[in-house]
Every structure is written in C-alpha cells, then in structure tokens.
C-alpha cells in the first residue's frame, strides 16, 4: 500500500508500524518538502527495514513498484 500511496497521492511522509496495519500519513503545504517512507515493518521483498523513500528518492523504479502493487490490487477484487 505504501507504494500505491507514493504513486497516486501527494504526501510529505509515510511511516508504517508492524501492529494492526497501522501507518501515519502526513501532508505538507510546503511544495519543497521531499517525500519519505519509513518503517518498523520488515520488508517481505528485501528482509530489511530500510526506508522505501528517503529525501524524495525511491528505492524502486516505477516499473519495479508496479510489479509489487498490481498483484496486491488484484487480490482486493
């Protein structure tokens, strides 16, 4: 879901927690704010807890993100 939000909604930061599917989503009126996605959740694709986006730079390309997001969206149908 973090990647879907990244690709479809304006945000300043996302932070994900391992319990209860909890996350914080923050917006900013400052257009110069660089987005970030941090987490305490272990990434199932990499096994680490590194930021998915730091200083506005995503760790995966749009194509790589679509490979992850598409099956997730289809599972919701």
Automatic annotation (TrEMBL):
This is Uncharacterized protein. It comes from Ectopseudomonas toyotomiensis.
């Amino acid at each position: 879901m973090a990647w879907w939000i990244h690709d479809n909604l304006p945000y300043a930061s996302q932070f994900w927690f391992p319990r209860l599917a909890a996350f914080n989503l923050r917006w900013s009126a400052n257009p110069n704010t660089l987005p970030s996605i941090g987490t305490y959740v272990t990434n199932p694709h990499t096994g680490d807890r590194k930021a998915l986006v730091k200083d506005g730079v995503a760790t995966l390309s749009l194509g790589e993100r679509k490979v992850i997001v598409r099956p997730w969206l289809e599972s919701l149908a």
